[in-house]
Give the backbone structure.
Amino acid sequence: MSSSTLITSANSTAHILKQASKLAIRVTRSTSAIAISNKRFVSSQSTAIAATRSLLATSRVNPLRQYTTSSLTVSNEKTNVNQAPALAAAVDEQDETMNDQKDKQEKRISEIKDAKLIFNQAFKNVQDIHGREHMIFPKEIIWLMGAPGSGKGTHTPAILRARGITNPPISMSSLLSTPECKDLINKGLMISDGKVVENLLHALLDCEPEVGVLVDGFPRSEVQVECLKLLHERMHELRKEYKHTPLKDFFPRPTFRICVLYVDEEISVNRQIMRGKLIKEHNAQVLRSGEGEIKEERVTDYDEMLIRARYQIFKDHYSCLLKLSKIFPFHLINAVGSIESVMRIILKEFEYQSSLELEHDTYEAISHIPLATKIGIHARQDLIRRLEHYCETEPEIFSKAVRFIDQEVSPMVARHAISGQALVRSDNPILSDPKIVEVVISILSERGYAITMDERVHETPRRVDPKTWEIILERTHVYALNIRFPQHHIQPLEQKF
């Protein structure tokens, strides 16, 4: 085959690829002679796809780049030139599909705001590393938060001394400055709440559990507030799980203390500007004298705009503090004043929070009673288990319960279908059997009804004993079933037009 024939075939292929991918690919012929041998080019379809992908990818980066015929791999026999547009379209479609899937996955991850899902996954990741029996947290955790310039760093040493805490404080800003977190920030990505919680759990487990620890800067979002609540509950679960094991002393009752320091915006701005000025003067003195250590200079201590922006972030997160106060009651601490006076307020606040907790012995005596928030977690599974048990092992009782519902409950419910509530009174003696009552309640609950039952005894005088003059009473048991279900709202006819 002549070289001119190969060049013509290559130009035709390039033209077709240009139409298929809508890319500006300009093919120029080299002015120099192109030595092309008569050896036939044999390439598979995968080779053509690879060449097409390479060509399209490069053209997207630099659409003005020129290609010569020598840069194209063309098969004149094994690969039909008419297949090129289809191959190019397939490549484009595959790339777009992969990009769409990646974008959707990243979007799903960024939109996940389910605190329970986030916490459970973070806790599992940490537990897989340490082991469940080693999930031993400090017995007291102080959560320190506050407005910028409120003196969190200043008061931290005094708080540690007052509470007898020897573990070094945990600063969330330091935890989020790890190489992994910096890499996410450099890529323009936000550090997820799951990663924040996971880093925090690792840091808490690295502490000595016999003494407490202070955490600076957590929680900062509503999701993190919910995660803090879940951590408290999980620590209670661990204590209950290991209560009757040799490890019970390693899982004490968790104690959370909340400390939120507050100053108004103007004081916050003035304090930070003054702090920046003092640090700059200190560092200048160290450079002149060669004695002392250089202190870190914060950019936010010199720019009033940045300072006010930081304070605005604190105000934006105020709703998180309100949510936190409903879980762990606390007061804002006015941090305007001397270190000693503010410290007295902090200790008084800790005493207040302690007064809201039960004494150890009292708590241990009632801790086995399930929390109201936990009672319904496995209620559905228990309900199904009960119904299956009675249906298989005691079918007679199950049939009596179903028959009672069909004859006495369902007609009354149908009569009150619009109201959403029905009161069924019955003197049927089968309700004296606790098993039948349990089955009736279970069946109605499974069908979506909320039911409560009350038993009352009516006494009716029947006769008088002539010898003792004692009034003989006849006792009748009446059972009242209060049944609630979703109310049906009927739209008036005139509102439809």
Summary: The mean pLDDT is 78.
